């Protein structure tokens, strides 16, 4: 449906009684989605690609955000967390001084699944020999110059048995009202960045919502954890948080979200990327560190409703929204999908900024 017509329908129908307006508004419901072996099975989100006009300025932000530089070239820097992925963020210098998101890269569960992805229409296979960990990559060009990548064959990092920290000197268990296991030991911290463990999720805002959602869920093991519908139209789904269906194995509540764009949004855009940190103390210390170094806070600290994460959103030097999160929910194949009206996005924390839903860069 053309966006101008949809916007006109919104303005007219939203003033009618619910029963009448939902009869007149075409159904825009997300159909039932489930995984099956014919789809490409992805294991996790490995990394993302960005282009920045000022690579050096972003590098300073990345250090304060908690990324660790692992390889640097003339026009590209690879940043890692302390998880098993060789890198989680690839920052390249923009050739025309315009910032761009260049897509997420998901890890295939096996060589067979990677080859299955390579047979999908539009797949372009290339090498990652120049990147830390090596491997191969498949790239798909999607609507509005968005990209989607599948990777396999990277050499994973050896993960430390102790969680690395730039802020914690001594930390034991929490003492609760009735159970106080920490006796004679003290919690001690110092200022520093919130070190990143891994990339957790990203999301697109898409005008051609139904077609794009069908492409991702028809071809890959993305399954909705939650679906939200419009407050004026219960027959219009506007947002879904999706996890990777790994069967009995638990995975993050959402690794990919997709939002139906407002009628006046003509082009798809990436809303934000999100990275896991160890705990709430790490997150709050990281918030103070970023603020002390002059970076722009967007929203946080607070706790989300769906996914339950403690969140903290910032703007990077190019204007992209980027999030620290901790304490997120896990789901598996036995966790039912939920559907509800769009409601508050936080349990506690600051009010959501009025421009939060918009494009940052």
UniProtKB/TrEMBL annotation:
Keywords: Dioxygenase, Metal-binding, Oxidoreductase. GO terms for cellular component: mitochondrion. GO terms for molecular function: dioxygenase activity; metal ion binding; methylmalonyl-CoA epimerase activity. InterPro entries: Glyas_Bleomycin-R_OHBP_Dase, Glyas_Fos-R_dOase_dom, MMCE/EMCE_epimerase, VOC_core. One of its GO terms (biological process) is L-methylmalonyl-CoA metabolic process. Residues 198-327 form the VOC domain. Gene3D superfamilies: 2,3-Dihydroxybiphenyl 1,2-Dioxygenase, domain 1. The keyword Coiled coil does not apply. This is Glyoxalase/Bleomycin resistance protein/Dihydroxybiphenyl dioxygenase.
């Amino acid at each position: 449906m053309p966006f101008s017509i949809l916007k006109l329908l919104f303005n007219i129908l939203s003033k009618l009684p619910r029963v009448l307006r939902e009869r007149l508004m075409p159904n825009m419901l997300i159909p039932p989605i489930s995984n099956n072996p014919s789809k490409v099975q992805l294991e996790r989100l490995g990394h993302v690609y960005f282009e920045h006009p000022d690579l050096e300025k972003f590098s300073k932000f990345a250090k304060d955000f908690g990324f660790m530089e692992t390889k640097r070239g003339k026009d590209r820097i690879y940043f890692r967390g302390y998880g098993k992925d060789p890198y989680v963020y690839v920052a390249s210098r923009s050739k025309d001084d315009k910032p761009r998101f260049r897509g997420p890269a998901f890890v295939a569960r096996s060589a067979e699944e990677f080859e299955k992805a390579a047979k999908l229409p539009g797949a372009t296979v290339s090498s990652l020999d120049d990147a830390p960990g090596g491997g191969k990559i498949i790239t798909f060009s999607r609507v509005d110059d968005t990209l989607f990548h599948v990777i396999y064959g990277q050499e994973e990092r050896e993960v430390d048995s102790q969680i690395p920290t730039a802020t914690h000197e001594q930390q034991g268990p929490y003492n609760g009202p009735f159970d106080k296991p920490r006796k004679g030991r003290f919690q001690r911290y110092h200022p520093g960045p919130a070190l990143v463990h891994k990339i957790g999720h990203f999301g697109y805002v898409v005008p051609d919502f139904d077609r794009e959602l069908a492409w991702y869920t028809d071809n890959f093991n993305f399954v909705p954890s939650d679906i939200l519908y419009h407050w004026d139209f219960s027959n219009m789904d506007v947002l879904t948080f999706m996890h990777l269906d790994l069967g009995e194995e638990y995975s993050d509540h959402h690794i990919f979200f997709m939002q139906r764009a407002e009628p006046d949004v003509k082009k798809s855009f990436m809303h934000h990327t999100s990275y896991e940190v160890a705990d709430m103390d790490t997150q709050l210390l990281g918030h103070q560190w970023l603020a002390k170094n002059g970076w722009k806070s967007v929203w946080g600290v607070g706790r989300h409703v769906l996914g339950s994460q403690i969140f903290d959103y910032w703007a990077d030097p190019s204007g992209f929204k980027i999030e620290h999160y901790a304490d997120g929910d896990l789901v598996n194949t036995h966790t039912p999908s939920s559907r509800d009206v769009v409601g508050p996005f936080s349990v506690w924390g600051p009010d959501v900024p009025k421009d939060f839903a918009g494009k940052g860069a």
